[in-house]
Amino acid sequence: MSHLRITITLFVLLVATGITHAAANNVSFEQGMGFDHARRLPEAVAAFKKSALAQPAAGTLVNLGIAEWQCGHAGEAILAWEQARWIDPFDSRAKSNLKFARAAAKVDEPQLKWFEVASLWLPPDAWVWLAGTSLCLTVGALTLPRFFRWRKTGWQQALAAVGLGIFLTSMTTNIGVVSRTTLGFVLKRNAPLLLTPTHTGEMISTLNAGESARWLRTRGDYNLIRTANGAGWIARDEFGLVNK
Amino acid sequence: MLVGKSSRFIVTVSILFSLVALLEGYAQTPPQISAQVAAQMIMRPQPAVDSSQLEAVSAKVEFDPPTVSLGQKSFYRVTINATENSIHWPNEICLPPELLPGLTARGQLTQPDGVPFHPLTEFIYSVTPTAAGRHTVSNYLVSVGGSSVEIPSADLEVVAATTNLPSPRILALELSATNVFLGQPFRVQVLLPAGAGNQIEALRDIQLSGGGLMIDKTALSQSIDVANINGQLKQSFICELKVTPIAMGPQEFFAQGFTAGREFSGPITMHGQLTIPGGPAKYVLLVSEPVKINVRPLPIDSEPPGFTGTMGTFFSDPPQLSTNRLHLGEPIHLKIMFHGKGDLTRFVAPAPPRSHDWQIIADYPPNTGFTLIPQTDETQSTPAIPFSGFDPIAGKYYDLSIPPLPVTVIGEGLPTELPTFDDDGKSTVPVKLSNLAPLPGKTATSLKPLQLQGWFVCLQLVPIIGFIALWRWDNRRRFLEAHPEIVRRRQALRALRRERLKLQKALDAGDADAFVRHAADALCIAVAPHYPANPQALVCADVLAQLDGKEQNGHHGETVRKIFAAADTRFGISMQTQPDLPALQADVETLLRMLEEKL
Fold it and tell me: I want to staple A189 with a disulfide (CB 3.0 to 4.6 A). Which of A157, A209, B124, B382 is the partner?
């Protein structure tokens, strides 16, 4: 009896914490909306950032991107919209704003491989659940009749085949999701791409805000990235990854 | 022969081209050659290569001076009309033991001899005699350009008496400092005192020996003036060089140069009465006495940021910005003027710092300003530019950093609407930004995908473990189906354990009927797997059959019969007497243990 009480208490506490947390996020979100309507853009950026940090949400990140764009921060805006699309690939606002921003800032869309493009059809977490479920379904359809001495039927075989097909498809998209985690965007305008990860490193070229690049590794305060024009080092605060 | 008329006023003579005056100012400006003169020098036809000299290489040897008193220095001098590189000069020459060797030097020059130029190389050895008499350095062979050339013998006459014999001509060295810091430039004067008849000769190909020194030949100046040499005021040819030590610790060096008659090269300032010899020059390699300096390292511990190697006393005017209100991406110029006392050649302009907010481009030297381009409209000041110098007199670093200056950067903003380019107003690109999202929308616990989260990977182990457990269970089940005796034995053991408990309860309660009934059941259970049969279907004979022959008729057999006889009385009409429970309990226990072991 006492165990049941403890479990119920913990459950209630957990739910209450979640509700409080969500309420706090909503407050930050509403504050951001208010600041944006009042054209107090830096405050709106701060409020949306706070809300997104506490609970990443597609709508919050869309609004953060709009506020950043209005502040003149193209790199941060494009990153926020890409993060919104990461959470919800069907978010029309994020998709539309990204097209608009890239046309206005004259930067190209990131070059994605075919399995990365396929991974955009569903949210990243959905793919991994789909892979896990389809694998269990396949293995279960093949093994459970034997274990429980059910009569083998055609539908079980069909279910296993379908499950295997879904699993193999979702594995490629899962690879695409993992591969997309290395995608990042230049935050600052004319960010220098350096030959060495040092303060006095020789500059190879400068990058536009919002330009996409692939993260290779980190050393100290610098990230090694590969852009369309070659690899080089960039300061960590001048480059943002989509999934961080 | 030119003779000066007065020593009161300064006569400035340009031997080759014109009269040049020394520039005055804070810094000594090196002699500049105009572009026109430089072009003329480059365009001058070069002398033809005289290959005939290779076939007529000869060597001349002498002691300078040929007669010295005991202990007086003389120079063993070998002159060969070939290039220095073509001569395989021995590392050591065989000197008489009475001659103590001193410093050695070698030098090469090309002497004008009509149209072609002839090379001339001299080797000199300073020797000090320790005994009077005639000392001879015998002849020997030296390879010059692949052929052997004989170096003739030479004699040095050493007299014992301290007669007033002429001393060899040597150069004098005067240093502006002898205890310097690494990289601190100092002046070196190479002096050639006037010879007999107060004749002044020029010096050519002046060099300083020693690897720890760097000579700035662009800052070379020549003059003829009265100099104090060993306490005597003498008219001298003075060549001033700027030298920078590049190695730490004690450094010893000497100067060497060829006398060149009246072949003064470049501008020269002459003071006082002097005689310049006429006729062709006589090229003689002279050396100075070695001098020592001590080179100290710069203090590393206290080196401030922005030290570029600037050495000397410098100060700067307040920095000036071309404007303090600018647009994003608009360049502005930061003007900084530095002044110094004395030598300005060791001024190294500050390096442009790296800033996230500014692109910084240094002006082309000798200018010391910066062009600054703001990269963000969030910055409110120019970047601080660290800079420092080292004062060798005080032996301390001092700060020359350029402080940040307040500026206002106006951001240009980004468009929120784009014009449509096609005629029908259709475009694949949205023409404006979307409205704000009214709700947070779809949420995520983290932007980090589940695929990369450790707990999720661990979660994948659960179904794997489940499937493995199912597989093991199925295997076990199939095994037991193939071996039912194992199941029966296990069931018998479990049932036996239960009957034992009931036996113990009956014993504790003193219930003899229950005891014998459970004892009989227990015995049947214990032997049932051997048939196999249901325990309830077994009788006394079945239990006895599982005992050995001896035991069937022995005590154990008797016990079994007693128990079954007592148990069977419940089916009889009249009650039998109660058995001795404690005695029977021990026998039953022994019997059950024995049967259990057989399972």
Answer: A209
Nearest residue in A to B464, CA atom: A136
How many Å separate Cα B188 from the centre of its chain? Answer: 35
Average pLDDT over residues B258-269: 83
> What CATH number has the domain spanning B2-19+169-296?
2.60.40.10
Query: In 3D, which of B348, B224, B202 has the Cα closest to residue B286?
Result: B202
Pick the last residue of a domain from A81, A105, A129.
A105
The nearest CA of chain A is from the CA of B348 a distance in Å of 17
List, as one string, the DSSP characters of A51-120: HHHHS-BHHHHHHHHHHHHHHT-HHHHHHHHHHHHHH-TT-HHHHHHHHHHHHHHT-PPP---HHHHHGG
Distances (CA, A) of A238 to A46, B259, B458, B598: 18, 66, 35, 81
Domain coverage including residue A225: 183-241
Report which DSSP code applies to B275.
Answer: E
User: In the prediction, which pLDDT does A164 show?
Assistant: 95
**CA nearest neighbour of B78 among B98, B58, B96:** B58
Residue in B141, B45, B136, B51 with CA at minimum distance from that of residue B90? B141
In chain B, the percentage of residues whose pLDDT exceeds 70 is: 85
Burial readout A141-163 (b: 16 or more C-beta within 10 A, e: otherwise): bbeeeeeeeeeeeeebeebbeeb
Alpha carbon distance B259, B407 (integer Å):
63
* Pick from B472, B286, B327: nearest CA to B409: B327
Query: Residue B432 gets which letter from DSSP?
Result: B
For A190-208, the DSSP string reads TEEEESSSSTTPPEEEEE-
Would A110 be classed as within a structural domain?
A: no
Nearest to A199 among B354, B441, B450 (CB): B354
Over the stretch B133-178, which tens digit does the pLDDT of each residue have? 899 999 999 998 888 899 999 999 998 866 677 788 889 999 988 8
**Residue B549 to residue B441: CA distance in whole angstroms:** 88
Q: What are phi and psi of B138, to 5 degrees?
A: -70, 165
End-to-end CA separation in angstroms for chain A = 44
- Smallest Cβ–Cβ distance between A93 and the set B411, B437, B448 belongs to B437
Tokens of residue B243, six digits: 């030298």
Q: How confident is the model at residue B412 (pLDDT cuts 50, 70, 90)?
A: low
Helices H, strands E: what count in chain A?
Answer: 8, 7
Question: What does R_g of chain A's alpha carbons equal in angstroms?
Answer: 23
**Residue of A84, A58, A76 whose CA lies nearest to A240:** A76
Determine the residue among B375, B433, B462, B464 to mutate to test chain A binding: the one whose Cβ has the most chain A Cβ atoms within 10 Å. B433
Strand segments, DSSP code E, in B47-116 are: 59-64, 67-69, 74-80, 87-88, 99-112
Asked if residue B529 lies in contact with residue B495, where contact means CB atoms within 8 angstroms, the answer is: no
Residues 371-410, chain B, touching A (beta carbon < 8 A): 375-377
Domain check: are A10 and A98 in the same one?
yes
Q: Inter-chain contact A70–B450, Cβ cutoff 8 Å?
A: no
d(CA B68, CA B87): 30
Q: Are A101 and A81 in contact (CB under 8 A)?
A: yes
8 Å CB contact between B232 and B273: no
**B307-410 classified as CATH 2.60.40:** yes
Amino acid, single-letter form, for residue B116:
P
pLDDT given at position B576? 55
Task: Identify whether residues A14 and A83 lie together within a single domain.
Answer: yes
Mean pLDDT of A195-212: 89
- Tell whether B450 is within 8 A of chain A (Cβ): yes
Please, what is the average pLDDT of chain A?
89
Kindly list the domain boundaries of chain B, sorted by start residue: 2-19+169-296, 56-159, 307-410, 484-598
Identify whether the C-beta of residue B225 lies closer than 8 Å to the C-beta of residue B271: yes
